[in-house]
Design brief:
Domain AMP-dependent synthetase/ligase: 100-477
Structural class: alpha/beta
CATH topology of the largest domain: Rossmann fold
InterPro entries: Ac_CoA_lig, ACAS_N, AMP-bd_C, AMP-bd_C_sf, AMP-binding_CS, AMP-dep_synth/lig_dom, ANL_N_sf
Number of strands: 32
Number of helices: 22
Bound molecules: adenosine-5'-monophosphate-propyl ester
CATH superfamily of the largest domain: ANL, N-terminal domain
Largest sheet: 8 strands, mixed
CATH architecture of the largest domain: 3-Layer(aba) Sandwich
EC number: 6.2.1.1
Domain AMP-binding enzyme C-terminal: 538-616
Strand order of the largest sheet: 12-11-8-6-7-14-15-25
GO molecular function: 3-hydroxypropionyl-CoA synthetase activity; acetate-CoA ligase activity; AMP binding; ATP binding
Length: 650
C-alpha cells in the first residue's frame, strides 16, 4: 500500500470521456430532459434539492401505494418514501413479466466447470414464487429472518428474492465463511430457516457446505428447518424432520405467489460486516430506499441499457453482489452474467473467455483481481475478443494508478472509461464515483454521486480542502442502512458520534485541487484483504480461542497483490513450543473459525506484546514494525524490550 499511495499522490493524468458515450449516456439524457448543461450544474442542482432528485428516481419504480413524503431526517435516523407501499421483488420481477421484458434473459449463469444455466425474467419469477410458497408453508412470515448460506449458484438470488417477496428478512452468509462464522451470524439474526447446498467446487476441490453447517446447528436454537440444494450430489446426512431438499419442497408448489405489500421502510436484509470489535455488525437495509438508491446508481454510473450484458464479478455474499448482481440489475431489467468460479481457474484466461463468449459490455471487478491479471501478463486477455466492452468498473479498495492503466489498456482497449466506485456495506449504493460524463484520473473515485454531500475532516471536525482526513457524509441517502440489527446504540456510536449528524465512513481520503476524491484506505482496525473487510479483533479472538494462544495482536501488512495481508503476533502458553507445525495449526484454526480469507499469511511468536502502562496493546508500534517504518514515540510503553522481540519475530 505504501508504494501505491505514493503513486496515487503523484498521479496527474486525465482521461476525457468519449463524446459518443457521453451523448448517449443515461445520465446525459436525463440532464437534457431537465435542462442541466454540465456535470457541475448536475451536482449543484441535485445538492440543492436532493428530495427533488430522489423523488424523480423513485417515480421509475412501482409503488402499490404512493409515498406521502420523500424524506424524514431525524439525524441519525432517516426514513425514505414515507408511507409508500412497495416490494423490491415486485420491482425486480413482476413488472418485467407484465412488460416486453418477460422473455428477456435475467441471468446467464456459468459454473466453475463450465456448465451453463439461463433464466428469463419469467422463469426466474416462477422459481422465486415456488420457493416463496414453500417458505410460507414452513411458517416463515413477514419480518422473520432466513439465513442463506449458498455458493454462487442461481438458487442464491432466487432464495433472496423469495424472502423479499413474502416480507422475510434475508441474511446471506458468504459461502467462504466457515462454521463458527455462520453460527455467530445466524444466531444473532435468530433465523428460523437456513438455506444451503450440499457443497460446491472451488478450484476443482469439493467443499461440503451442509457438513459445515451441521457442525454448529445445535448452537443456533432458533433454526427450525434447513433447506438443502443438491448442487454437487455429494454424500450428506439429512436430519429427519429438520433438513429438507430444495427440489422436494418446491416440487408441488404453485408458480404464483402474491407479493407481500411492504412499507417502504420495512427491513429487506441484514448483511454482516466487520467492525472494529470482534462482533460482526448486522447492517440492516430496507425495501424502498435501497431499491431506489441501488437501481439509480447502476443506471447512471454504469449506464445500463436494455441491450447491455452486465457482469459484476463479485460474490453475492458481499454487498457488491447484493446491490449489483441481484437487486439493481433486476430492477433495471438487465441481463447479467453470474459466474460461480474464480478468475484464474482453470487458467488465467477464464474471465476474458466469459467476456468474449457472452459479449459482456460492462464489467465490474476489484483491483486485487486486476493486479492478479497484471501478474499473469497481457498475453491472456489478448487471446480473446473483448470488443463488446464499453465501460469498466472497480470496487473494494483503492485502485493504484498502475493497475488502473493496465485495466484501461489491456481490458478496455484504451476506450472504456473506468468507474472507480467508492461505497460500503453500510451505504448500500455508490456514494463517490465517476459518471460516464466525467473526466477520469487514474486512482481517483472522482466526486460524490448527485445529492451526496461528502467532506474531509480533521480530528477537530474542521473541513479540509487539502491533505488527508476522515471521509464523512453530511446528508442522508436512500440506500443508507437504517441501523445495526439488535444494536441500535452501536449504530449511533460507531457512525454518528464523532461529528454531529455526520456519517463517519471509517476511511481516510484526500481532495485535490479539482475537488476529486482520492480514497486512501481504512483508518480503523479493519483490514482490507483483497477487497474483503476483515476485523483485526475477529481474527485475534479466533486465535486466542486456540488452547495454545494466550494473547494476540493482528495488523495489516502491505501487499502488492492483495492490498493488505494478515500479520499476527501471538503469545503462547508456557507449555507450548513455538514451532512451524503450530503455525500451520493456528492458520487452520482461524480458517475453521472464520474462513480461509481470514487465515493469517504471517504468524510470529513473541513473549510479550508492546503495551501501555494501563495494559493496552500498542498496535501503532506493531503496525510500524511490519511496515518497516519508524515506531515513533515509545515512552509510554510499559515493556520497551517487546519492540526488539517483534523485530526478531519479523
Ligand atoms: O475502505 C473502503 C473500501 O472498502 C470498504 C467497504 O468495504 P465493504 O463494506 O466490504 O464494501 C466493499 C464493496 C463496496 C470501504 O470502507 N472501498 C470500497 N470501494 C472502494 C474502497 N476503497 C477505495 N476505493 C474504492 N473504490
Amino acid at each position: 500500500m505504501g508504494k501505491n499511495l505514493d503513486a496515487l499522490l503523484k498521479e496527474e493524468r486525465i482521461f476525457k470521456p468519449d463524446e459518443e458515450l457521453v451523448s448517449n449516456s443515461n445520465i446525459k439524457q436525463w440532464m437534457d430532459m431537465h435542462g442541466i448543461k454540465n456535470y457541475d450544474e448536475l451536482l449543484e442542482k441535485s445538492a440543492a434539492n436532493p428530495e427533488w432528485f430522489w423523488d424523480e428516481m423513485a417515480r421509475d419504480l412501482v409503488w402499490f401505494e404512493d409515498y406521502n413524503e420523500v424524506l424524514e431526517w431525524k439525524a441519525p435516523h432517516a426514513s425514505w418514501f414515507l408511507d409508500g407501499k412497495f416490494n423490491i421483488a415486485y420491482n425486480a420481477l413482476d413488472r418485467h413479466i407484465k412488460s416486453g421484458r418477460k422473455n428477456k434473459l435475467a441471468y446467464i449463469w456459468e459454473s466453475e466447470k463450465g456448465e451453463v444455466r439461463k433464466f428469463t425474467y419469467f422463469e426466474l419469477y416462477r422459481e422465486v414464487n415456488r420457493l416463496a410458497n414453500a417458505l410460507k408453508k414452513m411458517g416463515i412470515k413477514k419480518g422473520d429472518r432466513v439465513s442463506i448460506y449458498l455458493p454462487m449458484i442461481p438458487e442464491l438470488p432466487i432464495a433472496m428474492l423469495a424472502c423479499a417477496r413474502i416480507g422475510a428478512v434475508h441474511s446471506v452468509v458468504f459461502s467462504g465463511f466457515w462454521a463458527k462464522a455462520f453460527q455467530e451470524r445466524a444466531k444473532d439474526a435468530q433465523s428460523k430457516v437456513a438455506i444451503t447446498a450440499d457443497g460446491f467446487y472451488r478450484r476443482g476441490k469439493l467443499l461440503k457446505l451442509k457438513d459445515t453447517l451441521d457442525e454448529v446447528m445445535e448452537h443456533i436454537p432458533s433454526l427450525e428447518k434447513v433447506v438443502v440444494v443438491k448442487n454437487t450430489h455429494c454424500d450428506l446426512d439429512m436430519k429427519k424432520g429438520r433438513d429438507v431438499y430444495w427440489e422436494e419442497v418446491i416440487q408441488n408448489e404453485s408458480m404464483e405467489c402474491s407479493c407481500e405489500e411492504m412499507d417502504s421502510e420495512d427491513p429487506l436484509f441484514i448483511l454482516y460486516t466487520s467492525g472494529t470489535t470482534g462482533k460482526p455488525k448486522g447492517v440492516l437495509h430496507t425495501h424502498g430506499g435501497y431499491a431506489v438508491g441501488a437501481s439509480t446508481t447502476l443506471k447512471f454510473v454504469f449506464d445500463i441499457k436494455d441491450q447491455d450484458i452486465w457482469w459484476c464479478a463479485a460474490d453475492i455474499g458481499w454487498i457488491t453482489g447484493h446491490s449489483y448482481i441481484v437487486y439493481a440489475p433486476l430492477i433495471l431489467g438487465a441481463t447479467s452474467v453470474m459466474f460461480e468460479g474464480t478468475p484464474d481457474y482453470p487458467d488465467p484466461g477464464r474471465f476474458w473467455e466469459i467476456i468474449e463468449k457472452y459479449g459482456v459490455s460492462i464489467f465490474y471487478t476489484a483491483p486485487t483481481t486486476i493486479r492478479l491479471f497484471m501478474k499473469y501478463g497481457e498475453k491472456w486477455p489478448q487471446k480473446y475478443n473483448m470488443n463488446t466492452l464499453r465501460i469498466l468498473g472497480s470496487v473494494g479498495e483503492p485502485i493504484n494508478p498502475e493497475a488502473w492503466m493496465w485495466y484501461h489498456q489491456h481490458i478496455g482497449n484504451r476506450k472504456c472509461p473506468i468507474m472507480d466506485t467508492w461505497w460500503q456495506t453500510e451505504t448500500g449504493m455508490h456514494l463517490i464515483t465517476p459518471l460516464p460524463i466525467t473526466p477520469l484520473k487514474p486512482g481517483s473515485a472522482v466526486k460524490p454521486f448527485p445529492t451526496i454531500k461528502a467532506e474531509i475532516k480533521d480530528d477537530e471536525g474542521n473541513t479540509l480542502t487539502k491533505g488527508g482526513g476522515h471521509l464523512v457524509i453530511k446528508n442522508p441517502w436512500p440506500a443508507m442502512f437504517r441501523t445495526l440489527f439488535g444494536e441500535p446504540e452501536r449504530y449511533v456510536e460507531s457512525y454518528w458520534s464523532k461529528f454531529p449528524d455526520t456519517y463517519l465512513s471509517g476511511d481516510v481520503a484526500r481532495l485535490d485541487q479539482d475537488g476529486y476524491y482520492w480514497i486512501q484506505g481504512r483508518e480503523d482496525d479493519v483490514l482490507n484483504v483483497a477487497g474483503h473487510r476483515i476485523s483485526t479483533a475477529e481474527v485475534e479472538s479466533a486465535l486466542v480461542s486456540h488452547p495454545s494462544v494466550v494473547e494476540s495482536a493482528v495488523v495489516g501488512k502491505p501487499d502488492l497483490l492483495k492490498g493488505e495481508e494478515i500479520s499476527a503476533f501471538v503469545v503462547l502458553g508456557e507449555e507450548y513450543q513455538a514451532d512451524p507445525q503450530l503455525k500451520n495449526e493456528l492458520r487452520d484454526h482461524v480458517r475453521k473459525e472464520i474462513g480461509p480469507i481470514a487465515s493469517p499469511s504471517y504468524i510470529g511468536f513473541v513473549d510479550d506484546l508492546p503495551k501501555t502502562r494501563s495494559g493496552k496493546i500498542m498496535r501503532r508500534v506493531i503496525k510500524a514494525k511490519v511496515k518497516s517504518e519508524d515506531v515513533g514515540d515509545t515512552s509510554t510503553l510499559a515493556n520497551p524490550e517487546s519492540v526488539d522481540a517483534l523485530d526478531r519475530a519479523i
